[in-house]
Specification:
This protein is of the alpha/beta class. It has three domains: about 100 residues, no CATH class; about 100 residues, no CATH class; about 160 residues, no CATH class. Helix content is about 35%, strand content about 20%. It has 14 helices and 14 strands. The strands form two sheets. Strands 1, 4, 5, 6, 7, 8, 9, 10, 11, 12, 13 and 14 form a twelve-stranded mixed beta sheet that branches. A two-stranded antiparallel ribbon has the order 2-3. A hairpin with a 2-residue loop joins strand 12 and strand 13. The N terminus is likely disordered.
């Protein structure tokens, strides 16, 4: 009977996680397996006879979770290390779907905004209740306030959610920005509109644009000067009248002074440079084997075709901050190795006009990876796959640029092991 009923359990790929989690836990509770989801009872047991019985239950709990994840989630969460450890699988799922992070807040909030009236009022009420439960499960507090107040980040996410499906890539890039506010969304969309003006809607070849390129198409006031092409008057210019600026603008101005964007120089031979603050920063770019982590790239980009496998020719282009357009000749997988000899692969564009490889922080974020500062070191970071609790590589801030502690690997040199893809 139990074997027959398990096939009626939902796949995680078909339902929301909170609903799936409740069903799985209840099912294991009925079979006295629930404690195996919370800790390793076999390891804690000292009695040899009791341990044998616990091993059977532990295997059953792991099997129930594994067979009800769905193909995509199984590949994402099940590893050689945890496939027989139900408490590790359970923990990885909760850390991914219910982690109290701004990125996860945005994902769950967007799911809530996508709730639609589909059949009956009863079903709609149920969907809303489940959505609210999901919001609370990731740490979003729903409170009553005396004054009419709305969180700017949530309002900005709602505006982004209104964009149609064809802007899905832009939606992903915007929602990775933190802190997300309405000014940032408006600025991005204005830049997007200007950068695509005059482009036929039925264009065959896609154009991949980096966010840093879009910024250059907007008229900005800078260095205490008013830009006559800006969409505001001198009287309302924050560069001339900083006392009129909101706190969010002042914070962004302060942060922008500390940040260097990676751009393409006007000289086609020189390749990748940074908006340097001092002359010493040039030394960062002399070694062309360096890999940079860029928060402005929409995709991973590599200049050397030798490092690509599963290569596919494409006829596309990449717009960069200087206003140039570089050809993107192909795409495929690029293998990399960290200082700790972890080998992983990324889906990347082949852009020969670059002289340095660029890893997209947005793409890594969308593949469950976080940039985490190392304790006690303000300039050292690690990039971790939070779903698998796996460190991909280290990164160091050098002259305001994230320099990755990783090396490219030729496809023929990749060892015959399972490689993580990001």
């Amino acid at each position: 009977m139990a074997e027959k009923s398990i096939h009626h359990l939902p796949l995680l790929s078909k339902v929301n996680f909170q609903n799936w989690k409740n069903i799985m836990f209840s099912y294991c509770l009925e079979r006295n397996l629930d404690d195996h989801l919370l800790s390793d009872l076999v390891k804690e047991e000292k009695d040899a006879v009791a341990k044998i019985s616990l091993q059977d239950k532990k295997a059953a709990a792991a099997g129930i979770l594994g067979r009800n994840l769905g193909v995509e989630n199984y590949a994402k969460f099940i590893t050689e290390d945890n496939r027989k450890q139900p408490h590790l699988i359970w923990s990885a799922l909760i850390n991914h779907f219910q982690s109290d992070t701004s990125q996860n807040h945005a994902v769950v909030y967007r799911d809530f905004l996508n709730i639609k009236f589909t059949s009956t009022l009863e079903q709609f009420i149920t969907d809303v209740d489940v959505g609210i439960s999901n919001l609370r499960s990731v740490g979003i507090k729903i409170v009553k306030m005396e004054k009419a107040t709305i969180d700017e980040t949530l309002l900005a996410e709602y505006i982004v959610n209104l964009l149609p499906q064809k802007f899905e890539n832009s939606k992903e890039i915007i929602t990775t920005k933190r802190p997300l506010d309405i000014d940032l969304v408006r600025s991005y969309l204005n830049s997007k509109q200007l950068s695509t003006a005059g482009t036929p809607s039925n264009s065959v070849d896609p154009v991949v644009k980096s966010e840093s390129a879009m910024k250059t198409t907007t008229a900005w006031c800078d260095n205490g000067q008013h830009n006559e092409n800006a969409h505001h008057s001198k009287a309302n210019c924050f560069q001339l009248h900083p006392e009129k600026a909101p706190e969010s603008w002042k914070r962004r101005q302060s942060a922008s002074k500390k940040k260097a964007n990676v751009v393409i120089s006007d000289n086609n031979v020189s390749g990748v440079y940074g908006c340097i603050i001092n002359s010493q920063a040039l030394s960062v770019f002399k070694d062309t084997s360096l890999v940079f982590l860029d928060s402005c790239c929409s995709d991973h980009m590599f200049p050397d075709k030798r490092f690509f496998s599963e290569y596919e020719d494409i006829g596309s282009s990449v717009s960069v901050a200087s206003g140039q357009s570089l050809p993107a000749l192909g795409r495929g997988l690029v293998y990399m190795k960290s200082d700790d000899n972890n080998t992983f692969a990324v889906k990347a564009l082949h852009v020969p006009g670059l002289t340095h490889a660029l890893l997209s922080l947005a793409r890594l974020s969308l593949n469950n990876c976080d940039l985490v500062r190392q304790p006690g070191s303000p300039s050292m970071f690690v990039v971790k796959d939070t779903a698998k609790n796996l460190t991909l590589f280290n990164a160091e801030i050098n002259n305001n640029i994230y320099v990755c502690k990783t090396a490219l690997v030729l496809p023929q040199d990749v060892p015959g092991i399972q490689v993580e893809k990001h």
